[in-house]
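Q: Could you fold this chain for me?
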Amino acid sequence: MTRLTNSTGALILVVGDFIVYIFSLILTLTVRYGEFPTRSLVSAHMQSFGILFLMFFIVSFSAGLYDKHSIFMRGRIQSMLLKVQFINILLGTAFFYIAPVGIAPKANLAIYFIISTLLLLLWRLVMFPVLSSARSQKAILVGESDDVEDIYDEVNGNTRYGLSFKEKLVPQDSVEKTVSAIGDAVKRTGATAIIIDLREPTLEATIPFLYSLVFSGIVIINAEKLYEAIFDRIPLSMVEDRWVVESASVALGGRRVYDVIKRVMDVVVSVIGIIISSIFYPFVYVAQKIEDGGDLFITQDRIGVNGKHIKILKFRSMTANDGGVYGTDGKTQLKITRVGKFIRVTRIDEFPQFWNILKGDISLIGPRPELPSLTTVYEKEIPYYNVRHLIKPGLSGWAQIYHRAHPHHAVAVEDTRDKLSYDLFYVKNRSLTLDIRIVFQTLRAMLSKQGV
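A: Sure. Below is the predicted structure, expressed as structure tokens.
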């Protein structure tokens, strides 16, 4: 279960990769100079290679090498690792041949990448699976909702979760029969874990019996918690008034330090972003004038924190600005221009929003700010949709990264319902660690040209 419910696997990988980086450098110096390197020689190289190691970790995080859904996939890891090493080679070459470094010869870099690539493959494909392997834990799944079915389908037969469901039970017509069924199943299967949907009234009433099983060494796991750990989202079927009170409201309180640090980060990043993105302004302006002579910017009303209306600034990518007023078919009547298509694919159209971040209308990380016209529809059709407005919206966010069916420029209730489950996950779990993870995944999405 540790594979699933905490970051042990990722932590082991980070430590292991760092050891590989250091050991590869020592081996490189040994091969290069024909003898085991002295401490002073290693120290002299570490001053420069230490910077590279940091860059390598950033690339690895961005590529998803520490993502829990890819850690235990051998074929995928091999391909990802080779791609990451190729990027690292380019970074290392640029660093050593452009930046002023005090070590020579630079041929050490070529030897280092050959050795480190081989050792990383050995560590990732051979040593880590052995180190992280654990006997599959026998378990019983109790519940009958669609969410429970999703857990069963995802976990069973997938060795990376360390769980194997031996039986799947449904609530009986009485608490006594349900307790008896669970007890019989534990004895029959030898299960050491019970995953149970405590939202079911009958199953919630079995808690005293489950409490007694804890003293027998049985692990009791709420299906809601397990679902969240597996899928990184909160299904709306689990969201009710109690959830909002216990999860969302608690997550918003007592985080002043986090809020202050996040605001400081927003200001710093937005200032840097404004300076760098200013290079693109004249090129976008000229391209737009050549194509249709229209305006450089558009402003749109969006919904901010606590439902407040805000003005979002963007480079114009369509034939005009519809202001979010859609036709009767639920779609905008405007067309994307050729320049607009390019700046959307490259995310250049989002650059002016650094001004919104600096102003404080939005944050770097948070739920996507929605158009008022769409918000009106979704608040009527989707229960608890307004919970996402408890926090400041963001330029990028958890849903933008992990929800693939992005509703865009049209009313899409079902896709938005699914997207909300990711927004609520962020509302509940927001932290600096999660924000940093989103930043890395955003970089990954941009490099792979995924939509965000």
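A (continued): The domain at 137-231 is CATH 3.40.50.10700 (Rossmann fold).
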